[in-house]
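4.2 Preliminary Data

To establish feasibility before requesting continued support, the project team ran the inverse folding procedure on a target of 409 residues. The structure was first converted into the token representation described in Section 3, and no sequence information of any kind was made available to the design step. The complete token record follows.
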């Protein structure tokens, strides 16, 4: 029997500026000056060659402009194509030849040495360019494989399941990383829509293996088990079997924090939530109110049954039309800014209204980047489920973020 806990919609939410909207959108890894910096770097080889010519003409003959001409093809190598790097090297060589011809110093030993140096460095730049291009192609291929593996392990759920609006995100802390220890899954079952979000202890391939075990066990158990408590026990047993075949510390201390939810098919407007040591989900109401779904009976994470055991008990919470359930991993709640302050999703989201789950997750991920300055140190998984209100359209991605003007009493 699930423990029943009805939660009313908190009112009187205080207005705060929108997380994003016109003029507030923050994209991945972008800063306002990034476009200018990129253009400057790409223009640098030409600037160096022009600067070398000016330096040669404005200084006595004892000074050499060779460093300018040597640097131009070296900088072009990682930035431009093979052809552009070749042209840069040729222009640098011609500039050296032309300047010494103009000064009638071509026969001097220093001029010959300078020319040989620029030619040699230009050839080396071409080799560097070729190596970088080949490595880039291999890296791109590896990223495609990694992305395919992520989609196989963590398939993106459908946007609409059993009348619910669904959105999911996986935000890697390290650029170019596609998969880690965070997980989520959504399953439409005879007992309702069931969800899981979790965070596996550890990093690397071991964590990825545990993610695959949890996701596989969840998909099977969600279809077969009558209650969400029984689903959690199936996951517990799956992780126990996984721990037996592991070696070292993971064999004894491997665990997974997880939150499991069930939204019954009947029109009761309920969420059954079972928390196994995971950050507490949030329920966002249509009026901007927000409720932290704290479990009535705290429980240990999955995989720690040897330390303590007690019956799992799910809490039931009202899920009214227009509300959105937000589940997340600690990559969100433990994101820090430059002063070391944690990101507090409950405070940041209070009083805000979003057209749907996808817009909510976009706003949250953008706001986390704004909070951390793009310096997140942990992966972040987000899962949002919205129950449509009266007359709410199926797809609302083109609707702008809105907020209701509210003031402190």
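Position-by-position output of the design step:
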């Amino acid at each position: 029997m699930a423990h029943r806990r009805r939660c009313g919609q908190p009112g009187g939410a205080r207005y705060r500026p929108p997380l994003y909207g016109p003029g507030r959108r923050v994209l991945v890894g972008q800063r306002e000056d990034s476009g200018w910096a990129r253009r400057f770097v790409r223009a640098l080889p030409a600037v160096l060659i022009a600067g070398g010519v000016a330096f040669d003409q404005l200084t006595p003959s004892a000074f050499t402009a060779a460093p300018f001409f040597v640097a131009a093809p070296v900088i072009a190598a990682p930035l431009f194509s093979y052809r552009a790097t070749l042209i840069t090297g040729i222009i640098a060589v011609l500039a050296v030849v032309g300047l010494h011809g103009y000064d009638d110093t071509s026969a001097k030993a220093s001029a010959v040495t300078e020319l040989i140096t620029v030619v040699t460095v230009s050839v080396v730049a071409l080799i560097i360019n070729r190596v970088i291009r080949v490595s880039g192609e291999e890296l791109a291929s590896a990223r495609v494989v990694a992305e395919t593996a992520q989609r196989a392990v963590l398939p993106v759920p459908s946007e609409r399941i059993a009348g619910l609006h669904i959105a999911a995100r996986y935000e890697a802390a390290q650029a170019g990383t596609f998969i880690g220890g965070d997980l989520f899954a959504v399953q439409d079952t005879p007992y309702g829509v069931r969800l899981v979000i979790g965070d596996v202890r550890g990093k690397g391939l071991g964590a990825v293996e545990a993610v695959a075990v949890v996701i596989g066990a969840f998909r099977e158990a969600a279809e077969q088990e009558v209650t969400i408590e029984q689903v959690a026990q199936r996951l517990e047993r799956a992780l126990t079997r996984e721990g037996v075949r592991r070696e070292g510390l993971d064999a004894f201390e491997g665990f997974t924090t997880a939150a499991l939810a069930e939204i019954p098919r009947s029109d009761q407007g309920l969420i059954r939530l079972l928390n196994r040591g995971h950050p507490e989900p949030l329920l966002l109401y249509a009026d901007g109110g927000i409720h932290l779904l704290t479990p009535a009976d705290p429980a240990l994470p999955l995989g720690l049954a040897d330390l303590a055991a007690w019956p799992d008990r799910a809490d039931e919470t009202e899920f009214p039309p227009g509300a959105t359930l937000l589940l997340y991993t600690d990559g969100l709640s433990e994101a820090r800014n430059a002063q070391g302050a944690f990101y507090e999703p409950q405070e940041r989201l209070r009083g805000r209204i979003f057209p749907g789950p996808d817009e909510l997750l976009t706003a949250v991920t953008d706001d986390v980047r704004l909070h951390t300055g793009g310096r997140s140190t942990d992966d972040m998984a987000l899962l949002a489920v919205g129950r449509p209100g009266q007359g709410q359209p199926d797809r609302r991605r083109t609707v702008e973020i809105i907020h209701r003007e509210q003031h402190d009493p």
